[in-house]
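Quick illustration, no need to memorize.
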Amino acid sequence: MRDLVHIRLGREPYAPVLDLQQRLRRLRITGGVPDLVLSVEHEPVITLGRQAGQENIMASRRVLQRLQVDVHKVERGGDVVYHGPGQLVLYPILDLRGWGRDLRRYVANLEEVMLRTARRFGVEAQRKPEFPGIWIGLQKLGFVGVHVRRWGTMHGIALNVDVSPNLFSLIVPCGLHGVDAISLADVCGVPVGLREVEETALEEMAEVFGVRVSTVSREELARWVG
């Protein structure tokens, strides 16, 4: 069984975590670090993927500044996404040369992790083959967007747990008009803890990817990245 190292970052702004992903991917490609996954809860941020248009941000720059919402253009696939408190984000940093070099299967596995995690909380979500992520009708529960270079992965999945404040109204989620975002807590009708969902998602990742997940400290991470 392969090993997957987990590092819990806690609540962090987007930019330094993006930089960390980039540094870790370079190290992963050259064998400087093992396959790993970062878990994080971001401060409010809007990210624009490669297919995103600025018109899919509905709020003015002044409103975004007042709400302290950052905006970043990133290299992942997909359109516009909001990240914020109450959302679990997982960033796998893998070398897909050891995983069959199959990008489609990789994305499907990430969706499967979210589907199984939601099911553990009594929530049945579905795929929409033409739109990556997981859905409940026209409501988006989980997002997936990845970037691969030299078979090294970045970005990953975001699962809405108990998003508050819910600032998805600032964007057209995934560039799709008429789509709303929903959280596990909305469906369950009771508060859902982020840490509990994180632990469940890591268990499901171990099952889906056939790995043994072990958590290491941020101090260990600091030694890896110098």
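The chain has a mean pLDDT of 93.
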